[in-house]
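COMPLEX REQUEST
Ligand: zinc ion
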Amino acid sequence: MKAAVISGVGQVEVTTVDDPAPGRRQVVVDVSACGLCGTDLHILQGEFAPTLPVIPGHEFAGVVAEIGADVTEVAVGDRVAVDPSLYCFECRYCRSGRNNLCERWGGIGVSTAGGAAEFAVAPVANCVKLPDHVRTEDAALIEPLSCAVRGYDVLRSQLATSVLIYGSGTMGLMMLELGKLTGAASIEVVDLNKERLATARQLGCTAVATSADELDRGGWDVVIDATGNARAIQDGLGRVAKGGTFLQFGVADYAARVEIDPYRIYNQEITITGSMAVLHSYERAADLFAGGVLDPEIFISDRLPLDDYAAALEQFKAGKGRKIQVLP
Ligand SMILES: [Zn+2]
Ligand SMILES: [Zn+2]
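STATUS: Structure written out below.
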């Protein structure tokens, strides 16, 4: 089959590899669409994936092409979206329900071959069948949405909070859409890229700005970084209102460092927390997606052939467009 392969740091190519075969409780998915995200760029720079080479792609959906000997839950021809999370179910974190912190945490497209290929293998337990009205290609958005759902799980949002989001790429916009569902009193979005802010405005946020200084507010109950950028994070940490929470949602470089203000954290009871990937949130994200929480026509800006994988990553890195998909 044809697959994109990240073979070493900075090296990505589309090549031919062996067709995968399913294990007893696995299925082979004929990939309809696979989304790209910042994690793929981190893998390309030698971070996040435990070893290279790897076939990237953790955001995908497709049609079941083959099932393992002990699979009864799905059949060949079923359309599915795939939760890429791979847990050991045996370590202390798994046994306490915090599987995303698993000591042997892995992900399809991170630690095993992913969806930037004609076919990908997944445990049947990770497959969610799609309702008739959901297009298979669009369902590749369920994975990033499930990360956003996890983010709001961490925040345990209350009604009528003021929310400030850094970044109006796909993830910032998803945090915006879910923020509306949580009943936020206001949601404001900061991004240096004015074109992206136009989409945030289109989706109905309270205000947008290229700097939080332009927004007339003393502080925000909830500040979410959806950039992973140290300057944005540093700025956001200082914008949290008394009693408020800062959520590190974007994936920063390993080397990124910011300064915190311990006295203010103490004196104003500020919470700084993070949200890592997916936890018990994939099925809920699939339900939200089927209910129309996101408009795929707005969220997916580019649908490219798999052959263009390297160029698609470059485009993503350059910050052009929103969710970029390859269609193997
Ligand atoms: Zn992703
Ligand atoms: Zn574990």
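REMARKS: The chain has two domains: 2-129+295-327, 148-274. The chain has a mean pLDDT of 97.
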